[in-house]
Every structure is written in structure tokens, then in C-alpha cells.
Automatic annotation (TrEMBL):
The lineage of its organism: Bacteria, Pseudomonadati, Pseudomonadota, Gammaproteobacteria, Pseudomonadales. It comes from Pseudomonas wuhanensis. This is DUF6388 family protein. InterPro entries: DUF6388 (IPR045662).
Length: 109
């Protein structure tokens, strides 16, 4: 089961709560930059938050959905179980053999 929108929102909140410097930066964005992109300040801020979240996931060698699961799972074991479940869904949707998929993404079988 892929991460839900609610889980992602919880993960973004936790991510931001753990990074007060990012919150300050996002709270002080130049409104003219939002206007130049044809966005509201809130939309522009949300976009910057998502970019920071995705950059952190990439820095950790994770997909953004994996970081979402990591930040919202009750335990590390729960995270691993959810992560494998999603990877299995992805492999199935891609029509890939599970062992081949695990090898491709460096997953323990």
C-alpha cells in the first residue's frame, strides 16, 4: 500500500518541525517570486517545501515515498514492512520478477 496523502502531510509536518531553519526560510520567501511564477505565496511555499523534502530523500538515497513512510511509521520494523509492500506493488505494476526487482533496487528479498 503506497503512502496516503494523509501520511505524506504528516511526514511533511514532521520534516518541517525537525528543521526550524527551513521553516524560517519558507516563512520569509519573497512574495514577488511567487507572483512571478503566477502562484500564491502559499502555493509557492508548498512547492519549496516539497522540493526540500524530495532533496532530503535523494540525499538519503530514498524515494520521497520512502521518506514519507520512514517519518510516519510507528517503528523501524513497521517502516521496513510498509516499504517492502510498496516495492512489491511497484514491481507487480511494472511486470517485473520480484527477485530481479530486488536486485535492481538493492532490496533484501
Amino acid at each position: 500500500m503506497a503512502a496516503t496523502e494523509q501520511q505524506h502531510e504528516q511526514a511533511l509536518k514532521k520534516f518541517l518541525d525537525e528543521r526550524p531553519e527551513l521553516r524560517v526560510e519558507l516563512d520569509n520567501l519573497n512574495p514577488l517570486l511567487a507572483q512571478a511564477k503566477g502562484e500564491t505565496v502559499a502555493q509557492y511555499r508548498d512547492e519549496r517545501l516539497h522540493e526540500a523534502f524530495e532533496a532530503e530523500a535523494e540525499r538519503l538515497g530514498l524515494f520521497a515515498w520512502e521518506l514519507t513512510l520512514q517519518l510516519t511509521a510507528a517503528t523501524p520494523e513497521d517502516y521496513q514492512a510498509q516499504r517492502l509492500e510498496v516495492h512489491k506493488e511497484v514491481a507487480e505494476m511494472a511486470g517485473m520478477d520480484w527477485l530481479e526487482y530486488c536486485e535492481l533496487y538493492g532490496l533484501a528479498k
